[in-house]
Amino acid sequence: MTVSANFEVDLHLHTTFSDGTLTPTRLVDLCASRGLKNIAISDHDSTEGLSEALKAAEAHPELTIIPAIELSTDIPGSEIHMLGYFIDREDPELQATLSRFRDGRFNRGRLMVEKLSEVGVEISWERVQKLSDGGSIGRPHVAQAMVEAGYVKFPKEAFDRYLGRDGIAYVERPKLTPEGAVAMLVQNGALPVMAHPTYSEVKSSRGGVVDLRDTLSALKGEGLVGMEVFYGDYTEDQVIYLKGLADDLDLIPCGGSDYHASGNPGEPEPGTVGPPISTIERLTAFERLTALKQETAGRPD
Ligand code: AMP
Ligand code: ZN
Ligand code: FE
Ligand code: FE
C-alpha cells in the first residue's frame, strides 16, 4: 500500500541502539521534520537510546516521546512481538533481564555467522558487531553485512534465503513466552501492546498469529492493553480486520511504521502510517491509572 498522507502519531520506531540505522538524534529530527507530534522509540531489548532521543526532542517542543521497548516472544513455530509503552527505564530488574536478552542475541549472531560460513557465505563477525555499534544485535545486522559482501542485494533477500525462520542459517535464541512478556511489562508499570499481529508483505518471513482472537483475549486477561492495527505496510483490508478485533476486545488500536531505515525498497517511512490522536489520549489515560494504582499499592496504611 503506498500511503502519502501524513500522520501525527508513530508508535513503532527503531534506532542504532537495536537494529535501526539512524541514531536517536537523527530519527527524532527526521520525525519532527515530517510533522510528527507523538512518537514512541521502541528498540528491541534495549532502552538505552531513550536518553539521547529525549535530549534530541528538546529542540522540538511540539514533539512528545513515549519511552518504549519491543520484546520478542516464542509461540510454537512462530513468534509474537510485544511492545511496552511508558517503560520505566530505572527498573533494575528490567535492565538485568534486557541485558540477558542482549547476551542471547550476541551468541545467536555469532552462531548465524558460523552457519552462513558452512554454506559458503563468508561474512565477518567483527563487521556484524561493528554494524550493531554496541546495541542489541539483530538479524538485520547480519543481513546488512551480507549486502555489503555482495551476497544479496537487499536485507530482505537475506531473510528470504538465509535468516528467516525457515532459512538455512536461522538460529534460535532464548525468548520469553507472550504471557511472560506481558507479566514483565506489567510488573514494570509499562503498557503491553501486541505488535504486528498479522502477516506483513515487507517482512516476508513472518506469518500471522494463529488463533489471534483467542490469543489476544487470553493476553488481555494478563494485562495486554492494546494491539497494533495501523502498521507498516498493512493493507486497508488488514487494518479493517484488526480494527474490528481491537474494538470487539476493547484493546487500544495502536501502530506505526516500524521504521528501521533498513535500505529495503518500499520500507514505510515515519509518519506514513499510524493511529489517530485518540490512541494517545487512551494510552495516556491508562498510564495515569496504572501509575496511580502503583502509588496506592506502595503507600503504607
Ligand atoms: P531479530 O530481532 O534478530 O530476530 O530480527 C528481527 C528483525 O528483523 C525484525 O524486527 C525486523 O526488523 C527484521 N525482519 C524480520 N523479517 C524480515 C524480512 N523478511 N525482511 C527484512 N527484515 C526483516
Ligand atoms: Zn527490528
Ligand atoms: Fe517486531
Ligand atoms: Fe519493530
Keywords for this entry:
301 residues; alpha/beta; TIM Barrel; seven-stranded mixed sheet; 7 strands; 43% helix; binds zinc ion; binds fe (iii) ion
Largest sheet: 7 strands, mixed
CATH topology tier name of the domain at 9-90 and 177-297: TIM Barrel
Q: What would CATH call the architecture of the domain at 9-90 and 177-297? A: Alpha-Beta Barrel
Report the sheet-strand fraction.
5-15%
Give the CATH H-level superfamily of the domain at 9-90 and 177-297. Metal-dependent hydrolases
Q: Give the N-to-C terminal Cα separation.
A: 56 Å
- Pairing-aware structural class of the strands and helices? alpha/beta
Tally of helical runs: 10
Helix content: 40-55%
The CATH class designation of the domain at 9-90 and 177-297 is Alpha Beta
Shape: globular
Give a short overview.
The protein has 301 residues and is α/β, with parallel strands linked by helices. The protein has a domain at 9-90 and 177-297: Metal-dependent hydrolases (TIM Barrel).
